[in-house]
UniProtKB/TrEMBL annotation:
Reaction catalysis annotation: Na(+)(in) + H(+)(out) = Na(+)(out) + H(+)(in); Li(+)(in) + Na(+)(out) = Li(+)(out) + Na(+)(in); Li(+)(out) + H(+)(in) = Li(+)(in) + H(+)(out)
Signal peptide: 1-33
BP-aspect Gene Ontology terms: regulation of intracellular pH; sodium ion import across plasma membrane
Keywords: Antiport, Calmodulin-binding, Cell membrane, Coiled coil, Glycoprotein, Ion transport, Lipoprotein, Membrane, Palmitate, Phosphoprotein, Signal, Sodium, Sodium transport, Transmembrane, Transmembrane helix, Transport, Ubl conjugation
Compartments in which it is found: Basolateral cell membrane
Keyword Acetylation among UniProt keywords: no
Residue ranges that the Swiss-Prot or TrEMBL entry lists as coiled coil: 605-632
Region listing for Disordered, in residue ranges: 39-63, 578-601
Ribonucleoprotein as UniProt keyword: no
Recorded GO CC terms: basolateral plasma membrane
UniProt name for this protein: Sodium/hydrogen exchanger
Pfam family name, one: NEXCaM_BD
C-alpha cells in the first residue's frame, strides 16, 4: 500500500508509521518479535512487497536440519546455576584443603586464607580480561547471611545468654553508640583540616560511616572465636554483642541516610530516632517469636510426615527474616528470636532423624556461606572501585581501635558494680581485641547512593582496610595472646547427667532463697516463666503426653537418648546392648517388693488430691506467710512480734498433724514373741526417751 501511494511525502510517512505500529502489535501478540523501528522507508516497503517469500525462506531456515543436533552448545541456558555450583564447589574444596593442613590451620585463621584465595581468584579473572564478580548487597543479605545467623540463633546457649543479657546489651547498645559517634565526630574533625581534599565530607556522612564501621561483625567473630576455643563467658559476650548491635546499626544507618537527603535535623527527629531503635529491635524480636510459635505449632501435626519436618524449620525461619526486612526491622534479631523460641518445642515434636538433619544441614550451609562470603570479599576487593586517601584511612583505623578500647574499659567499670562474677583485665583485653569487622559493613557501604555520598568509594576503601586489619592482624594474633595470657579455654567435655540435675537443683534452691528473702531476682522471674510455659504453652505447642510428663522424667529421657546417640555416632554402638552397660539407664534396677503385711494402704483419688491440696496450701505459700528480711534489718528483740502469730501457727500445725495422721496411718506390725519383746524393751528405753525428747524439741523450734 505504501509503495503504491503516489501522494505527498507526508502521506507516505504517515502510512508507513501506521504499518509499523500494526506490525509491532502483531509481533507482540504472536511472539515473533517487533519490527525494527529505526529502519528506513525503503526497507519497510521492500519487506512488505516481498512478505510471503521472506516468510517461506525464514521458515525454511528455522527448520533446517542440523548435522549433529546432540552436540550443540548452549552455555547461556545453564550459566547462572553452573557458576553458582562452581563457586560452592570451589569454596568447599578450599575449606577441605585448609583442614588437611594442620600446621597452617593452627597459625592462620580460616577466614584469612579464604580472603587470600579470593584475592588470587579476582586477580586471575582480571588478568584474563574479564570483570570480577562483586559481592552484591542483595546477595549477601538475602542469601548468604541468613544461614549463618539461623545456625547461631538455633543453637544459641540460652542459659549463658540470658545470664549475661545485661552485659551484652550494654556492649551492644551503649558501646555501639559510643563507637559510632566517637569515630564519626573525630573523622569529621580530621576532614575539616585543610590540604587533604576532604572538606566536602559533611558531618552526616562521617556519622553514617562511623555507624557502619563501629558494629562488630558476627560472621568474622564466629569464624575466629570458634577456632581458638575461648571460654563460654567471653565467647557469649563478644558474639552476643555482634548479634544484638545489628538493631543499632540498622537504625543509625537509615536515620543518617534519611537526614542526608533531607538536610535539616530537629529535636523531633532525634526523638523519633530513639523510638525507631525500639521499634526496629523489639519489632524484629516480635516477628521472630511469632514465626517461631507458628513453627512449633505446625510441628505438632508432623508425626505422619516426618520427611518435611526440617523444611518447616527452614521456611519459617527464612520467612521471619524476610518479613522483618520488608518493614526495615532487624532481620538478624528476627532470626535469633525465631530459632531460640522454636527449638525447645520443635525438638520435642520431631523425630531424632529430623533433628540430625536440621543440625547438619544448618552447619553445612552456614559453613558454605561463611566460606563464600570471605572468598567474595577478596574478589570484590580486586574488582571494586577504590579511592585511596592516606589521612582518612589511617585515621579511621586508629579511631576504631581507640574507641573500642575506651568503650570496653569504661563500660566494664560500670558493669562490674552489678556483676557477681567480675570481668578481669584479661577479659576486657580479649573483648576489646575481639571486636572484628566483616562483610556486613562492606555490604552496607555498597548500598550508599553516590548522589548523596560522593565519597562512597573512599568509604569503601577505608572499610576494606579496617576489615583486613581486624581479620588478619587481630585474627592471627588473638590465639597466641590467649595462650600467653593463660585465658581460660572452653571445656571440651560435656556435662554429665549428674551435673545437669544438680544445676537444676541449684536453680530451684536459689529461687526458694529469693522467695524467702522477698528478693525478685532473675531466678524468681525465670521460675515464673517456666511455670507459665509448663502450664499453658507446652500444652498448646507440644503434641502427645510429653507435655504432661514430669520434668525430671522428661529430662532423664532426653539425656538418655542424647548420650545413646553420641555413643552410636562415636562408634560404640555395637557395645551398647550387652557388652557395655548404660551409664544413665535405670531399667536394670528392679525395686524390691515390700512385704505383704507391711504394704501401704491404697488411697483413693479424692483423698490423694485432698492431701496434695493440704500440702500446697501449707508448703507453697511461703511468700504470703513470711515477711521479707535481710541481715541489715533483723530485729534484736525476739519477742517483738507478739504471741498471736505463734499461736495461729501452732493451731495450723496441729490441724495439719491430725489430718496427716488420719490419712497416712500404717498397719501395725505383727506382735513379737515374749522373749524378743522383753529384750527390745530393756535395750530401747533410753533410745525411745531420747528420741521423744528430740522430737519434742524440734516441734517447739518449728512452732517458734
Amino acid at each position: 500500500v505504501a509503495a503504491r501511494l503516489d501522494c505527498s511525502g507526508v502521506l507516505k510517512r504517515a502510512a508507513v508509521m501506521e504499518l509499523k505500529m500494526f506490525l509491532l502489535v502483531l509481533g507482540l501478540l504472536v511472539g515473533t518479535g517487533s519490527p525494527d523501528m529505526g529502519s528506513s522507508q525503503g526497507k519497510c516497503s521492500e519487506s512488505l512487497v516481498q512478505g510471503p517469500q521472506t516468510q517461506e525462506n525464514r521458515t525454511h531456515t528455522t527448520h533446517s536440519k542440523k548435522p549433529f543436533p546432540v552436540l550443540s552448545f548452549g552455555y547461556d541456558y545453564v550459566r547462572l546455576p553452573f557458576e553458582i555450583s562452581l563457586w560452592v564447589l570451589l569454596a568447599s574444596l578450599m575449606k577441605l584443603g585448609f583442614h588437611l593442613m594442620p600446621r597452617l590451620s593452627s597459625i592462620v585463621p580460616e577466614s584469612c586464607l579464604l580472603i587470600v584465595v579470593g584475592l588470587l581468584v579476582g586477580g586471575l579473572i582480571k588478568l584474563v580480561g574479564e570483570a570480577p564478580p562483586v559481592l552484591e548487597s542483595n546477595i549477601f543479605f538475602l542469601y548468604l547471611l541468613p544461614p549463618i545467623i539461623l545456625d547461631a540463633g538455633y543453637f544459641l546457649p540460652i542459659r549463658q545468654f540470658t545470664e549475661n543479657l545485661g552485659t551484652i546489651l550494654m556492649f551492644a547498645v551503649v558501646g555501639t553508640l559510643w563507637n559510632a559517634f566517637f569515630v564519626g565526630g573525630l573523622l569529621y574533625g580530621v576532614c575539616q583540616l585543610e590540604g587533604h581534599r576532604l572538606v566536602t565530607v559533611d558531618l552526616l556522612s562521617c556519622l553514617l560511616f562511623g555507624s557502619i564501621i563501629s558494629a562488630v561483625d558476627p560472621v568474622a567473630v564466629l569464624a575466629v572465636f570458634e577456632e581458638i576455643h575461648i571460654n563460654e563467658l567471653l565467647h557469649i559476650l563478644v558474639f552476643g554483642e555482634s548479634l544484638l548491635n545489628d538493631a543499632v546499626t540498622v537504625v543509625l544507618y537509615h536515620l543518617f541516610e534519611e537526614f542526608s537527603s533531607v538536610g535539616t535535623i530537629t529535636v523531633t527527629d532525634v526523638l523519633l530516632g530513639i523510638v525507631c531503635f525500639l521499634v526496629v529491635s523489639l519489632g524484629g524480636i516480635v516477628v521472630g517469636a511469632i514465626y517461631g510459635i507458628l513453627a512449633a505449632f505446625t510441628s505438632r501435626f508432623t508425626s505422619h510426615t516426618r520427611v518435611i519436618e526440617p523444611l518447616f524449620v527452614f521456611l519459617y525461619s527464612y520467612m521471619a527474616y524476610l518479613s522483618a526486612e520488608v518493614f526495615h526491622l532487624s532481620g538478624i534479631m528476627a532470626l535469633i528470636a525465631c530459632g531460640a523460641v522454636m527449638r525447645p518445642y520443635v525438638e520435642a515434636n520431631i523425630s531424632h532423624k529430623s533433628h540430625t538433619t536440621i543440625k547438619y544441614f544448618l552447619k553445612m550451609w552456614s559453613s558454605v556461606s561463611d566460606t563464600l562470603i570471605f572468598i567474595f570479599l577478596g574478589v570484590s576487593t580486586v574488582a571494586g572501585p577504590h579511592e585511596w586517601n592516606w589521612i582518612f584511612v589511617v585515621a579511621t583505623l586508629i579511631f576504631c581501635l581507640v574507641a573500642r578500647v575506651l568503650g570496653v574499659v569504661g563500660l566494664t567499670f560500670v558493669i562490674n558494680k552489678f556483676r557477681i562474677v567480675k570481668l578481669t583485665s584479661k577479659d576486657q583485653f580479649i573483648i576489646a581485641y575481639g571486636g572484628l569487622r566483616g562483610a556486613i559493613a562492606f555490604s552496607l557501604v555498597y548500598l550508599l547512593n553516590t548522589d548523596h555520598f560522593p565519597k562512597r568509594n573512599m568509604f569503601l576503601t577505608a572499610i576494606i582496610t579496617v576489615i583486613f586489619f581486624t581479620v588478619f592482624v587481630q585474627g592471627m594474633t588473638i590465639r597466641p595472646l590467649v595462650d600467653l595470657l593463660a585465658v581460660k579455654k572452653k571445656q571440651e567435655t560435656k556435662r554429665s547427667i549428674n551435673e545437669e540435675i544438680h544445676t537444676q537443683f541449684l536453680d530451684h534452691l536459689l529461687t526458694g532463697i529469693e522467695d524467702i528473702c522477698g528478693h525478685y531476682g532473675h531466678h524468681h522471674w525465670k521460675d515464673k516463666l517456666n511455670r507459665f510455659n509448663k502450664k499453658y504453652v507446652k500444652k498448646c505447642l507440644i503434641a502427645g503426653e510429653r507435655s504432661k510428663e514430669p520434668q525430671l522424667i522428661a529430662f532423664y529421657h532426653k539425656m538418655e537418648m542424647k548420650q545413646a546417640i553420641e555413643l552410636v555416632e562415636s562408634g560404640g554402638g555395637s557395645k551398647l546392648p550387652s557388652a557395655m552397660p548404660s551409664t544413665v539407664s535405670m531399667q536394670n534396677i528392679q525395686p524390691k517388693k515390700p512385704p505383704q503385711d507391711r504394704a501401704l494402704p491404697q488411697l483413693s483419688k479424692a483423698r490423694e488430691e485432698e492431701i496434695r491440696k493440704i500440702l500446697r496450701t501449707n508448703l507453697q505459700r511461703t511468700r504470703q506467710r513470711l515477711r521479707s528480711y535481710n541481715r541489715h534489718t533483723l530485729i534484736a528483740d525476739p519477742y517483738e512480734d507478739g504471741w498471736n502469730e505463734i499461736l495461729i501457727k501452732r493451731k495450723k500445725m496441729k490441724e495439719l498433724e491430725k489430718k496427716m495422721n488420719n490419712y497416712l496411718t500404717v498397719p501395725a506390725p505383727p506382735p513379737d514373741s515374749p522373749t524378743i519383746a522383753r529384750a527390745r524393751l530393756a535395750s530401747g528405753e533410753m533410745a525411745v526417751y531420747s528420741a521423744g525428747s528430740l522430737i519434742y524439741e524440734l516441734r517447739i523450734m518449728l512452732y517458734d
